[in-house]
C-alpha cells in the first residue's frame, strides 16, 4: 500500500519540522528514528524518539494548529508524508461505516486537544525545567506513558533511609523512597515523576507496587537486623509514602492488611506517611480510611508537619502515631530563634498527646544535639545516612554502630 506514496529520505541530523510552523503533514516512519524536542533557553528539552512503524507530527495535522515541538532525524530516515488531502482522498474511498467510525474517533481526538493544551500554573512540569502551555501538557502525557512503561518494565526501585533513635543512635526503622532507574535518563528522583503519577492516578498502581516490594524486602532487612541485635533495639519498621488517591480507594486498608497477612509481617512494622494536605482534602473519608488502617495495627505518620494547614484538631481526632517535622524547620532552627520555638512547640504538643516525633533532614551534629536536648525521640537525615538501594541497606543494617555518625569509618556521614 505504501508504494502509492512518495518517500522522503532524511539524513541523520536533518530537521523535519520546527515548533510553531504550520503542520501540513504527518509522517509515517519506514526506517530510522525521529527525535522530538523543544528549543528552550539553556538548551533543548528532549520529549521522545519515534521509530519505524510510528507516526510523527500527527498532532498539528489533526488540530490544524502550529507544530507544538521540533523534530529531526536521529538516524538516516525514510519517511512517508501523509497530508490532510491524502487522508480525505483515501477515506472517501472507504466503506461508509468505516469512514463514519474514523470520523467519530478523529472528532473525539480533536475534542481532546484543547484539554491537552491547558496551560497555567500547576500544569507545568517541575519548576525550572518545564516547557509552557501545550508543550508542558504533551511532555506530561509522554512522561505518564513512559512511567507506565517503566512500571511494567520493573524500572521503579525503592531506596531506604534510616530513621534513628536520637538518644541512643540505634536504627528504629527506614523510610522507603522511590527512584526510577530510567534506561536513558539514569536515576530519576521522585520529585520528577511522583507529581505526574499523582495527577494521572497512576500513583495507585505505583503505591501497590511499593507495598508489595516492602512486603518482599522488609523480612530481608529484619534478617539483617538479627545479625546486629546489640546495636539495634528491636526489629526495624518500614515507613511508606501514601498519596491521597491511595487513601481514597475503598479497598486500601484491606490491601495493606492482605499484604501483611501474606508476608507474616507484624502490622506494627509498617507505617504509612501522609501529608496534611491529604487530610484537609476530604477529612471525613481520610479519617475513615485511617481508622481502618490503625485497627489493623499499622502506624500512621503525618509527613512534612508544619508546612501544610497544620490544623491541630486532627491530631486529637485521628489515630496519628508519629509526627514528622519538616526539614525546613530543622534546618532553620539553628539560625532563627523563631524556627527553634516552632520545633519546641511542636515537640511539647506532641509530648502532651503522647505522639512521638521524627525530625527530618538532620545534616549536622549540632542539629541532632539540639533536638535531643528538646526531647525529640527520632531523627532522619544525611547525618545518619542517605537513602540507599537494598543491598547497601542490608550491609548498613548488619554493620550499624550507634555512634556511626561520629566514626571515621563513615566519611560520607561526617561530610554531610
Ligand atoms: P519526603 O517524604 O518528605 O521524603 C524525604 C525527602 O528528604 C527524601 O527526598 C530524602 O532523600 C530527603 N532527605 C532526607 N534526609 C535529608 C537531609 O538530611 N537533607 C536533605 N536536603 N534532604 C534529605 P526524595 O527521596 O527525593 O523524595 C522526595 C519526595 O518524594 C518525598 O518527600 C515524598 O514526598 C515523595 N516520594 C518519595 N517516594 C515516594 C513514594 O514511594 N510514594 C509517594 N507517594 N511519594 C514518594
Ligand atoms: Ca515521607
Ligand atoms: Ca517529609
Automatic annotation (TrEMBL):
InterPro entries for the chain: cNMP-bd_CS (IPR018488), cNMP-bd_dom (IPR000595), cNMP-bd_dom_sf (IPR018490), Cyclic-di-GMP_PDE-like (IPR050706), EAL_dom (IPR001633), EAL_sf (IPR035919), RmlC-like_jellyroll (IPR014710)
Residues of the Cyclic nucleotide-binding domain: 1-88
Pfam families: cNMP_binding, EAL
PROSITE patterns (alphabetical): CNMP_BINDING_2, CNMP_BINDING_3, EAL
Domain EAL: 140-401
Family matches, as PANTHER family: CYCLIC DI-GMP PHOSPHODIESTERASE PDEF, SIGNALING PROTEIN YKOW
Name of protein: Cyclic nucleotide-binding protein
Species this chain originates from: Methylobacterium iners
Amino acid at each position: 500500500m505504501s508504494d502509492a506514496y512518495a518517500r522522503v529520505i532524511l539524513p541523520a541530523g536533518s530537521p523535519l519540522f520546527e515548533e510553531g510552523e504550520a503542520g501540513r503533514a504527518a509522517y509515517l516512519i519506514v526506517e530510522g528514528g525521529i527525535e522530538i524536542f523543544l528549543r528552550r533557553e539553556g538548551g533543548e528539552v528532549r520529549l521522545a524518539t519515534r521509530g519505524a512503524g510510528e507516526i510523527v507530527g500527527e498532532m498539528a495535522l489533526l488540530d490544524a494548529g502550529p507544530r507544538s515541538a521540533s523534530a529531526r532525524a536521529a538516524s538516516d530516515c525514510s519517511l512517508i508524508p501523509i497530508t490532510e488531502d491524502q487522508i480525505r482522498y483515501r477515506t472517501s474511498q472507504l466503506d461508509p461505516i468505516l469512514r463514519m467510525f474514523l470520523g467519530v474517533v478523529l472528532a473525539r481526538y480533536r475534542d481532546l486537544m484543547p484539554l491537552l493544551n491547558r496551560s497555567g500554573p500547576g500544569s507545568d512540569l517541575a519548576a525550572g525545567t518545564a516547557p509552557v502551555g501545550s508543550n508542558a501538557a504533551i511532555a506530561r502525557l509522554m512522561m505518564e506513558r513512559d512511567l507506565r512503561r517503566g512500571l511494567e518494565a520493573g524500572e521503579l526501585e525503592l531506596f531506604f533511609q534510616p530513621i534513628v533513635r536520637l538518644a541512643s543512635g540505634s536504627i528504629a526503622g527506614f523510610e522507603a523512597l522511590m527512584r526510577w532507574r530510567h534506561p536513558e535518563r539514569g536515576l530519576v528522583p521522585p520529585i520528577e515523576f511522583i507529581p505526574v503519577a499523582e495527577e494521572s492516578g497512576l500513583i495507585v498502581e505505583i503505591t501497590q507496587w511499593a507495598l508489595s516490594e516492602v512486603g518482599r524486602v522488609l523480612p530481608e532487612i529484619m534478617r539483617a537486623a538479627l545479625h546486629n541485635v546489640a546495636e539495634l533495639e528491636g526489629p526495624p519498621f518500614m515507613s511508606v509514602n501514601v498519596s491521597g488517591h491511595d487513601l481514597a480507594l475503598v479497598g486500601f486498608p484491606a490491601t495493606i492488611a492482605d499484604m501483611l497477612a501474606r508476608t507474616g509481617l507484624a502490622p506494627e512494622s509498617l507505617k504509612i506517611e501522609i501529608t496534611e494536605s491529604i487530610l484537609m482534602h476530604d477529612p471525613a473519608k481520610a479519617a475513615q480510611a485511617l481508622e481502618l488502617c490503625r485497627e489493623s495495627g499499622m502506624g500512621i505518620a503525618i509527613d512534612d508537619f508544619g508546612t501544610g494547614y497544620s490544623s491541630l484538631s486532627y491530631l486529637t481526632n485521628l489515630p496519628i502515631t508519629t509526627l514528622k517535622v519538616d526539614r525546613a524547620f530543622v534546618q532553620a532552627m539553628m539560625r532563627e530563634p523563631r524556627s527553634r520555638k516552632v520545633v519546641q512547640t511542636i515537640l511539647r504538643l506532641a509530648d502532651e498527646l503522647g505522639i512521638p516525633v521524627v525530625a527530618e533532614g538532620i545534616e549536622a551534629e549540632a542539629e541532632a544535639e539540639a533536638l535531643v536536648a528538646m526531647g525529640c525521640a527520632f531523627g532522619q537525615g544525611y547525618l545518619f545516612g542517605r537513602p540507599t538501594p537494598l543491598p547497601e541497606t542490608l550491609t548498613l543494617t548488619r554493620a550499624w554502630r550507634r555512634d556511626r555518625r561520629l566514626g571515621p569509618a563513615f566519611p560520607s556521614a561526617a561530610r554531610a
